[in-house]
Amino acid sequence: MTTSPEPTNTSSVRTGHLGEKPVHRIGFGAMQLAGPGVFGPPSDPERARTVLRRAIELGVDHVDTAQFYGPDVVNDLIREALHPYPEGLRLVTKVGAYRDEQGGWLPAGRPEQLKAAVEDNLRGLGVERMDLVNLRRYERDAPGADAAPLEDQLGALAELREEGKLDLIGVSSVHLDTVRTAIETVGIGQVQNPYSLLDRSDDDVLALCREHGVAYVPYFPLGSAFSGGPAALAADPHVAGVAERHGASATQVALAWLLARYDNLLLIPGTSSVAHLEENMAVLDVALDADDLAELEKVEPRPVGH
Ligand SMILES: NC(=O)c1ccc[n+]([C@@H]2O[C@H](COP(=O)([O-])OP(=O)(O)OC[C@H]3O[C@@H](n4cnc5c(N)ncnc54)[C@H](OP(=O)(O)O)[C@@H]3O)[C@@H](O)[C@H]2O)c1
Questions:
Q1: For the segment 206-229, what is each residue's pLDDT rounded down to a tens digit?
Q2: What span, in angstroms and rounded, lies between the C-alpha atoms of 21 and 5?
Q3: Atom of ligand 1 nearest to the CA of 94
Q4: From atom 17 of ligand 1, which residue's Cα is the shortest distance away?
Q5: Taking the CB of residue 237, how many other CB atoms lie within 10 A of it?
Q6: Does the Cβ of 93 fall within 6 Å of ligand 1?
Q7: Closest listed residue to residue 261, CA positions, set 191, 183, 192, 207
Q8: Contact 160, 182 (CB under 8 A)
Q9: In order of start, what are the domains of the chain with their CATH numbers?
């Protein structure tokens, strides 16, 4: 495992790892494949399946999903498009939430709910074992809403690991103390938190992952579609300047900046478009230098989220 105590420019490193298993540093976040608001089916399911197949053709070997995307819609699309899965494809899901009939996102973090949700994912995806299951907590979105103590939640996932239902445990939407506890108790394969050029508030968690060699997987890497992140990046003069210098797009610059933060930072940009997918996969060819990184430090942070 390669770890670096201090940030160095790691934008051109092509392979990271989940646990001991190598993965391409650019994976695919499947959330955008559901209908509007990540609720119900997309208007053109075949288009969504085409995006998934193209991702695999382009070298994606890490797909991030959840049963509560849709619900069930995204896992069904993945199974329909990709099953039987190519050798080495890592399927990563998250448990700890459910959707109400209006599409609201609610906590479902009691141990028995977590175990049932893992079974739902196994069934929906048509696999016997998940490569990684993230415990999706509510401590950042709605402090106090988590319905069970962290230790009990992690214990439930550790039991499923013992039973062979999952390889690795991850934690998502969590603060530093939770990450530390998870590393020290059950051991984790990734942290999945919101982080981007527009929201750098998770630098302390990223540093802890770097220290332990744990994969850091930023969600909302483009600042979140829910709050206009991609458009805000395109409108930022610092991002636009660096993009022009490289003949790249604003989104490519934002993703390359993330890759430069840590050699085991794995991207899962979400898109429902083949053209955007192809653009995102080309990011490893955008080599930012020290001047670019200094310029991007000037980007004004802005609130992101649902
Ligand atoms: N753990 C959690 O709680 C959690 C929460 C949220 C997300 N996630 C995961 O993280 C993944 C990434 O997050 P996200 O999808 O919400 O990211 P994001 O930062 O919101 O970016 C997605 C948005 O960017 C657009 N986009 C993508 N590539 C683009 C490009 N090359 N040019 C212009 N626009 C582009 C997409 O639109 P188009 O579809 O038009 O390309 C979409 O609107 C999700 O897919 C999901 O798997 C996890």
A1: 999 999 999 999 999 999 888 888
A2: 21
A3: 1
A4: 220
A5: 11
A6: no
A7: 207
A8: no
A9: 23-227+264-271 (3.20.20.100)
Quickly tell me which residue has 């653009």 as its tokens.
Answer: 279
- For 21, the enclosing helix (H) or strand (E) is strand 21-24
Which of 171, 273, 280, 281 should be mutated for ligand 1, with most atoms under 8 A from CB? 273
The residue type found at 129 is R
- For residues 63 and 137, what is the distance between their CA atoms, to the nearest angstrom? 20
Q: Is 105 in the pocket of ligand 1 (CB under 6 A)?
A: no
Query: Measured from the CB, is residue 64 less than 6 Å from ligand 1?
Result: yes
To test the pocket of ligand 1, the residue of 28, 31, 279 to mutate (highest count of ligand atoms within 8 Å of its CB) is 31
Ligand 1 centroid–CA 69 distance in Å is 13
Element (H, E) at 251: helix 250-259
Task: Tell me how far the alpha carbon of residue 184 lies from the centroid of ligand 1, in angstroms.
Answer: 31
Query: Which of ligand 1's atoms lies nearest the C-alpha of 65?
Result: 47
pLDDT tier for residue 147 given thresholds of 50, 70 and 90: confident
The 3-state DSSP class for residue 93 equals strand
Residue linked to tokens 């048509």: 126
User: What are the structure tokens assigned to 13, written together?
Assistant: 């490193």
Tallying the residues shown for the chain, one arrives at 306
64 contacts 72 by C-beta, under 8 angstroms: no
Buried b (16+ CB within 10 A) or exposed e, 211-232: ebebbbbbbbbbbbbebebbeb
High-pLDDT (> 90) share of the chain, %: 89
pLDDT greater than 50 at residue 1: no
282: left (phi over 0), alpha (psi -120 to 50) or beta: alpha
Query: Of 69, 138, 216, 262, which is the active-site residue?
Result: 69
Token look-up 């299951």 returns: 133
**Catalytic residue check, 69:** yes
pLDDT, the chain, mean: 95
Residue nearest to atom 10 of ligand 1 (CA): 219
